[in-house]
Write a structure and sequence with these properties.
3 copies of one chain form a homotrimer. With 673 residues, the first copy, chain A, is α/β, with parallel strands linked by helices. Chain A is built from 16 helices and 27 strands. In chain A, 30% of the residues lie in helices and 22% in strands. Chains in contact: A-B, A-C, B-C.
Amino acid sequence: MAQFKLPAFGHGGDYNPDQWLDRPDVLEDDIRYMKEAGVNLLSVGIFAWAALEPEEGKYTFGWLRDILDNFHKNGISAFLATPSGARPAWMSKKYPEVLRYENGVKFEHGNRHNHCFTSPVYRSFVTKMNTRLAEEFASHPAVVGWHISNEYSGQCHCENCQRAFRKWLKEKYHTLENVNKAWWTSFWSKTFTDWDQIRSPERNGETSLTGLTLDWMRFVTHQTIDFVKCETAPIKKITPNLPVTINTMQNFTFLSYPKFAEVVDFMGYDCYSKWGKYSDYRTAVDTAFTYDSVRGYLLKPWSLMESTPSQVNWHDVCKIKRPGIHMLSSVQAVAHGSDTVMMFQWRKGRGGPEKFHGAVIGHDMTNKTRVFKEVKEVGALLEKISPIVNAEIKSECALIYDFESFWALNEAQGPVKDKEYHKVLVSHYEALSKRGVNIDVIDSEKDFNAYKVIAAPYLYMVKPGVAERLEAFVENGGTLVLGYFSGVADENDLCFLGGAPGPLKKLAGVWAEETDALYDGQKNAIVINKNDDIDMQGRYECGFMLDVLNLEGAKMVGAYESDYYAGTGALTVKKTGKGETWYIAARTEQRFLDDFYKALLKSSNVTPIVSGLPDGVTVTEREKDGNRYVFVMNFSEKDASVSLPEGVSMITGECVKGLKVLPANGFEIICRK
Amino acid sequence: MAQFKLPAFGHGGDYNPDQWLDRPDVLEDDIRYMKEAGVNLLSVGIFAWAALEPEEGKYTFGWLRDILDNFHKNGISAFLATPSGARPAWMSKKYPEVLRYENGVKFEHGNRHNHCFTSPVYRSFVTKMNTRLAEEFASHPAVVGWHISNEYSGQCHCENCQRAFRKWLKEKYHTLENVNKAWWTSFWSKTFTDWDQIRSPERNGETSLTGLTLDWMRFVTHQTIDFVKCETAPIKKITPNLPVTINTMQNFTFLSYPKFAEVVDFMGYDCYSKWGKYSDYRTAVDTAFTYDSVRGYLLKPWSLMESTPSQVNWHDVCKIKRPGIHMLSSVQAVAHGSDTVMMFQWRKGRGGPEKFHGAVIGHDMTNKTRVFKEVKEVGALLEKISPIVNAEIKSECALIYDFESFWALNEAQGPVKDKEYHKVLVSHYEALSKRGVNIDVIDSEKDFNAYKVIAAPYLYMVKPGVAERLEAFVENGGTLVLGYFSGVADENDLCFLGGAPGPLKKLAGVWAEETDALYDGQKNAIVINKNDDIDMQGRYECGFMLDVLNLEGAKMVGAYESDYYAGTGALTVKKTGKGETWYIAARTEQRFLDDFYKALLKSSNVTPIVSGLPDGVTVTEREKDGNRYVFVMNFSEKDASVSLPEGVSMITGECVKGLKVLPANGFEIICRK
Amino acid sequence: MAQFKLPAFGHGGDYNPDQWLDRPDVLEDDIRYMKEAGVNLLSVGIFAWAALEPEEGKYTFGWLRDILDNFHKNGISAFLATPSGARPAWMSKKYPEVLRYENGVKFEHGNRHNHCFTSPVYRSFVTKMNTRLAEEFASHPAVVGWHISNEYSGQCHCENCQRAFRKWLKEKYHTLENVNKAWWTSFWSKTFTDWDQIRSPERNGETSLTGLTLDWMRFVTHQTIDFVKCETAPIKKITPNLPVTINTMQNFTFLSYPKFAEVVDFMGYDCYSKWGKYSDYRTAVDTAFTYDSVRGYLLKPWSLMESTPSQVNWHDVCKIKRPGIHMLSSVQAVAHGSDTVMMFQWRKGRGGPEKFHGAVIGHDMTNKTRVFKEVKEVGALLEKISPIVNAEIKSECALIYDFESFWALNEAQGPVKDKEYHKVLVSHYEALSKRGVNIDVIDSEKDFNAYKVIAAPYLYMVKPGVAERLEAFVENGGTLVLGYFSGVADENDLCFLGGAPGPLKKLAGVWAEETDALYDGQKNAIVINKNDDIDMQGRYECGFMLDVLNLEGAKMVGAYESDYYAGTGALTVKKTGKGETWYIAARTEQRFLDDFYKALLKSSNVTPIVSGLPDGVTVTEREKDGNRYVFVMNFSEKDASVSLPEGVSMITGECVKGLKVLPANGFEIICRK
């Protein structure tokens, strides 16, 4: 496997010189401005297919070579992209099979990210293009990695895909009987008696078989990965030492990104948070959650591949990042494990849908803007903290975010329509984050052994082995947190018999006999009296989904306040071996989770990086060669007095220790031994 | 016609043993639990086609026979279902004509309830299947009736259906000239000059001809009934003594259910009210309205064919029925004429979209749940009150809910977009219900003679003969209540010339020169001074639609308070023969209707079952063999003191008389002579 | 060019006798009622194709001749319509190419306004029909003009249209290289290498190329005009002296109506404002804006071709126009340049979707209604003021509303999703209108020389020559008002390089470095201190879009109050030659615009028709033969005391001068020299 280890933090972004080939003065300005802004890394060639192969079989790589040569001459590196994110029009016209189909209707050529992942024709074109690209630039000194395609997404329902899906099913299930069993086809007369009866779930087709839908989503991930393999096969062969990545997308949940670990050397991520819509702290927590999720796919440093230096063009309201926010959000990415700060885009095009997306260089064509100056400051900072590059992050706490469980939960009809999986997970993340600790956001297939606390509060689907591994974790002293509507279904979305939380019943010591649902505005509460199990007490509102529990070995710590299940268990604990399992039976207000994890992390002996964080301040720590780098960031809108660990400021070079006032949007980065 | 007369109340629900054929232990448990819960009637075979005919022409009925044998052995009865609600995949694959079409696009196989009702192929398969089923189980002692298909619904626009539609039109209109006249095709150049130019109203086709749309909706009802006839032909022949039913669906308004009277022996109904979303009383009134509507289709006892013992899975929020509500809502069904309390579903499947729908037996597989206990209590009660089974309901008051009038009103552009037909009707129903009387909800083709009061407050369409029959009703002493935007169009949706309310003008004595519409939040009021015509006075808000009346024989009782029609008639009365006709010119607040019907029923000598009902308490009465059974139900959230009629409690066996306190959710059933 | 000069104001509307040919009594009543109501002008034959050509090639014009003969006999005139707005069913059936296509799917026959504008078959039918109509009625004395089709609208994506689009593109761009450059196809690999690769932007096709979309919209306008030419070719040849018009539609923005100036002799307009939803004044301003827009297409008197005497049938709530409003809104149309007051519709049909649309004669078939009386009063008034017919309107102020700029702005992604172009323009119009002046609403291709003040507050696209013409305007002493997000893109939607406002930078003297966007509820403010440039001061809220300016020659008059751009320019002015250019950098509350234009019009020496207008009163002036006719209208809900100019009341014939009290909904029309 190729190593992704940059010598310094990468700073730059998407660069589309192919839009300006008739303006050599502009290309010259670009280099000059890049150097001024401390930009050292650009992604080039994304969507450049028409420029690289203007007609079938005619390759025009000269312009790209010129760009890369010029980069190298100026000490600038590049991620070289494969151009498969958009096809040239001649290809769609001549080979319509490369287009996507839905309900038997072909999509016309247009837009982007809309090819069939199965099409042999498209794969053949991709193979040829990538082979030629790799051959051409295999040893180019400016190229430091491969950026495969762009933001993979979407589905195709053409007959090629139907066949591939059936083939995948056959390999997974061997017999139709197994399929019928896994998908519980005995309801609604759905039994399949021939493989050819199976089709992907489309708008006008079968949308009621959750097992089929789930397998289709798995297949889409599989087939996308298979397509990535097709893309990378010539690349890996010709340029085995260049690392490859894909850029994943914020809040895009239809591909199981962790599965891509097998085909990339590091993970890329495109982050477009809505700074300025809510409080900065709210946005910071939401963003940090996604950063730690991306990091969790490989549990390695990753690359912030796209972000905006200012505003995007596709939010409903494209508010400008306030001064200082670009710096702070860039630092936040590094704090959570990114080794790059890259932006979409270096320069705004004159036309096209993204002409109003933020860029380092705008339509004014100058370096005189506020945005340019802020980007330049980020460049300077990244250089200053370059010793941190490649540093790892270690966490004592993990939060389980499982794509397949999420899919199955979302497909489930009942007990509420909108499951709010993401929001629920973020509320736990926020409470953990307030404790001043690193957090790994992982799927349920990762190793649990390294953690002291694992929160799995909404684990609807429990895949084979997960319960056993959680049992081992608790037996060995771990603290496990479970929640409502968990342990409901197996990997095929078949409900566990014997009652929820299914295979987690033993650990939780509860049977969730019913899961109630309340309408908006209807509330219950959890009441916790002083007790010996956890250092919290009080009354906390709850609603949304509420499990009605029977205790089967667990101890009741908090009880419902009202309704027909008043007085029954709403918060329970059960000890197993050296550890314990908590069960939070209903969705609570945030204050409950804040108090709960405060007490829990203390009793679980989790060590905070910084204790007593003021409101709005977050902290992380990266480690490398025995050095520990602490990032302290003030996302509140006022000064915050933080008790800093002893060490050397990476910014000022001075020793720091004890209370320090961070201004709003201020930050500090400390190296401590 | 076969008789639907159960020896005792049916208690049970949908049972899908075909999902558990590999688990004989589960099937054994089922029987044991059924007997414990007092369950004596199950619907079996719904959606079981794939299990009954796994490949074309190969019938596998053994498992079903085993189930029925076992039922009989244990004193349990069955409604035997025809499986046409869902097809096996092999049929869709081999005979795509069985699938529905829209805008020339075929729907793929999937989901349920989506076959073409016209397809000769599908009809042939149905005939074969139903013949075999009837032959096989004709004399099975467990089978007490036929459950034909499931929740008929939907439309198909394939060429077979287009041809059938044209044939139906030819039989109705004979000549194209008649069609053109009936549909007023002289606007927008719509004149048809060839039958083949006529097509069903589809998304991409003709949606502006309300006459066409109306006839298409009638045809859909006709064709669905024709399909039912195809289903029942072999059944009626082979098992002439078994009653047949279909299960109609709550708030499903695209089939004119009353027309199905010709093909069923009793009416089935699936009721899924949103208990717990609003106040229980609100839900009770909404539910009772639908119960009396279903009863009104045949004006005979009916069967609650589906309901949930706890929560559904398809509401936005699937709140659990609070303890006692399952009992009370079951009693309410019986109170309004149901002879069964059946539930969807006996047991939750492990997979499929309905795996989280409430059931008597859940994924815990036990009888230890709250839900099981409540179901068991209902079983015990139904046994206790079994003398009431088959009792009739007689009403002095009727409310006209006419499907075709509703369709035409809904298709009408203006005076408001959302006509709120259902809500308007329910508001009248509620006011009548508060008077402690039985209410028949009927269409305009039923006999009017038995009633003292008929409310027809929103009768947009007046079909031939209806005005004449209403005239006879009033002449003979009846009290008729009409309302705004009534008497507007004839059965072809052609507006009556001469002004609204068209043929009802003579009875009403008013000409509605204009119908105003107010935006949300804009209000007028009706002011009624002390008068000799009705015992009410005061100021009542009104809005929505407001007729501006010219009096042509009627007397003004209430006047508008403001706007340019201030002082003109808003409530009028006209006497005809021994009776009188009231006209309520605008939509009012509920308080108006409450006061109005209170005075009106008194002056019309309608006898309440119970007088002076406290808020939140409802009452009905069933009659059989000279006995009268009074149901008193407290849907308020507190104790209610009710003045009970003298009689014997069917619950305690004790004599009751005078004031009794019913707790919240409490009820009493009294037999009085 | 044929002249549109009526001898008196036209009063009447759409008349569909073809719906009543079997009722000669009704047709007789019509004539009688028309004369009573002072109705002298009807549009006939709209949608009458099926009555005019019931089968291919068989023309039946007799009934129409009878109607026109009868008109003439009774002194009534007609606009004769071509019937192309709806086809007969036989044509769609036999020649499906006349139907529209989208995404390769044919629309079925039905509804109206849905033919392919390119189809040679349809054009051939239209040519034949219009030739025959013209021949038949060329010299009919009742016919005073042609009403071509009805409310042109919509698009077709069939292969005929694709070919026509490509042909149009070739004529415009000559080479694909030019196309690629204009559309900036170098992004997302969109370079076209063959003309046949280009297709219209459809739902399933290319929606990301704003240049393509913009050209498609231009093509749709072009092709619709080309279709009008096809319609009018025989007409112009056979009846060269009859003026032709089309009826444009309120708030319909997908055709660039000003371009139709080349094919019509006067402009028709269908106006259906929502009187009674908001305050009458609010509706009056919105309506007046559209009146002045329609007038602006040709800058000539126009024709109110449709309006409702009472209510429409297609608003969500079809509120009745309150008494007096039909009169006042009719006067308003005349006040803003209409020479007709025509209504949809003379008589309600019995069926069809428009049977509940307001009409002079309703389903009661009489002249006894409030509506009839109000229409009759309008007829009497129009006769009284007939000297005013053909009078022109001259304005010192213009507001630029540019369809192509609007389209491009709407297609732009960012800085906000909903651009609210119309609302922004109306807010400027309202502020100008409060000053008691005539206002021309024009596109950017009109002559600027006649004006003292031009407001171009949202001119996203600046077409070639516009900046130069504005410069000349300012140089010569004009006052120009610009606003945020202006001067951004050229006619191909390519952003100007060098920064916004692009070619307007020189005039404005500002560089809009960034355009911020605020979420709903987020606010900034503009603070203006006492200054010498404009007679206004204070604090005004602003939000939505906010330019952050660099002053490059302009003077700051108002500054932002808060945020990181606090203290920077929010209102600036720059003098050029004898004139000056104002730049309003953010969207403000209405009060700002009111104060701003009050001061500006004064300093720009714009002469008000009436000074010191009370709230809710509007005024316009028409001129003819040296006479000036002043219209003063009170749209407030109370008496208003207005300082009238000296002259003679056209209503009472009396001299008026000085303060006069106009009641709510009252008006006065004064002739002054």
